[in-house]
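User: Can you fold this complex?
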Amino acid sequence: MSIISKAIINLSYALDDSKRYNKTKKFFYNILENDSFRLKKYLDGFMITLIFLSVYILIRDVKHELNDFWIEFNNVVISLIFFIEYIFRFWVSSSISKVVINQNEHNLMLNRNFSIKKMLTEVLKDKLKYVFSIKAIIDLLAIIPFFHQLRLLRVLILFRVFKLFRYAKSFQTFVSVLATKKFEFITLLMFASIIIFVSSVLIYVMEANNPDSPIHTLFDAFYWSIVTISTVGYGDVTAVTNEGRSVAIVVITSGVAVLAFSTSLVVSAFSEKLDEMKEMKTIDNISKNKSFYLICGYEGVANEVAKILKKNDFQILVMDEDEKRVKEAIKDGFEALNFDPGEVESYKKLNIDLSKHVRAVLALRQSDVENVYTTMTVRSMHKDVYILSLLMEEMHRNKLSIAGANEIIYSKDLVGMIAKEFIGQPVAFEVIHALRSEFSGVDMEEILVTNRIFKYISKINQLENEKYRVVLLGIWKKDSDEFIFNPKADTTIELGDYLVVIGNSLFIREFKRALQKKIFR
Amino acid sequence: MKNLIEKKDAALIFGYNEYSLEIAKNISFKYKNIEVFSLEKNENSSHFDLSDDWSELEEKFDMENSVAFCVLQDDATNIFLTLSLRASFKNLNIIAFCKNKEGAHKLTLAGANKVIPLIQTTASMISDMLRKPIVTKVMHGILYEKSDLKIAQIRVEKEASFIGKHPFEVNWGEEFGIIVLSIMQDDINSSFIYSSKAKHKAIQNGDILIVVGYDNDIIEFESLIGSQCEVNWGDWSR
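Assistant: Here's the predicted assembly.
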């Protein structure tokens, strides 16, 4: 193996292992290509501003004398920025080191020598594929005004406008929708082209030698055909002979057909794709959410849970395999998808990280089979995500826990417990119910001891909750996982503990705010 | 002869299904006499119909001190049953279960003391668990599990240091080891001491305090100021 080959391989491994390099590359990839990346919209906004500025300068330049600064700014600064952007896009489009490593490992397995030529072809293939993509070509053409001073070529600046499509998602959707009707559009285009070709030739033959006719050249004939078939009919070029008019009749009639056909094509393409587009929009909205509850099934208990959570400003996504129920969920104002919650594919389509984005998966179908299946599916994908499931029949409880549900809610159990409480501890029951109901004005809340709170407060007596007319019922210690009721004044507070307080909702809110800001200190 | 037989207080469960069995299982600690009634005739339960003739029951049980659970599957029949029971027994404690809020409203109108809409109750339990896991855990401990923490109501009968004071001026936790949640004065209208209107009320002799605390502390507090008392909690919540 030559020294160069060795150097290339070593460098590739070094780059592949380097955390810093990978992190940098990932950052640039995200900021350029990843729509869900937080900072991307700022770069997009900046680029769009540059594009409009560039076009403004072009328009202004037509009738006004611009000072040199703006011309230079347009030709050098903007072009340079676009050039840098192009280079970065070129860089992140594919990974050379990966190609080298793949090839090297492949060769090692088969006991072959590393070939630089083969490696270069692979790399070139990858990179050229990017260079010749439509988006990259537009990017490149948008830089060109930098390299010349010819006035005509300045029109190339308009490619900067085309660059806008890169930032406009709706245009990409538009193109992808129309692409589904490719065959129909090609047929229509062929039909129109033939009509235009035949009619241009015919009208030229009929009219070109007639001194009264405005059609003198083949270009005139072609222009007339296009204007007529599109049903625009400016009237600046018209047929004057009877033969020519006969051709016009045919072109006009077929023009109406072409127009009607193309309109209906666009409309049908959109109406066919409408559901899918709505789905995409929902997925898009959801992936923007930092955390949400995923409710599987929309019936009975699920409806109510969704409503309560929504009322408390939590984000929710409903997933149900039944179209009718999904429609109902959408009607009730929820983000809902007609996906089967029992299939891994459904979650993949969502394009989210289950553990990061989903606060909890709630399997709330009225059927144990469905809930077990959903629980199993989610658990198989992620071992840590919190799953709460409804249980309909006691005998299926163990199946649900084997499937991996963290919490199982059995409504018949609940009825038994409620009855027991009514009979045994009526007062406690009523008090707690009244506390829970939203109408009492009194609330019971848990406050997590965050870093901010922990910084100033380490003991119960530093809380000063009496000042806010908030009663501290107790503290939930994270370490020992136990609840200390009515803690003593010198009880220590640790990071991650929960304070359980009772009081007027407004007072609690004020107390919480004060804890965060420490304004009472 | 009949009059000589002492009538017993009982829990009457109407409807023979999984819910009723679950209820029977859970209330057996308090009621020795639990009778399950079913509209259909079967071996495990007594039969009843909706004919308004409750004389048999009346002969057998002390209806004033009994409690009835209406857990028929069909909401309409359940409402009909509740109405029929209420018409015959003014003071019977009726607890009715139904599917949703709509049914709950109708059952309340029909005269049930307490109505549990199953779907809503399950849903609010789930959402509580998600929204306030710690609070729910603590409450669950107090309500359903054998925790030492209890909620009790105590009538102020003896002279105590806090009479004449506002509930908020007393450091309950430090002095008595309990926390006062609510105060009920003669007019039965109770309110949590933390709601704004309660701050105008001073504690008087005869008031009933709703307190939370460990068993021992509550007993001690009780002996200090008065006695635990039973109030018709059905009225209290309305």
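Residues 12 and 159 of chain B are 42 Å apart (CA to CA). The domain at 2-125 of chain B is CATH 3.40.50.720 (Rossmann fold).
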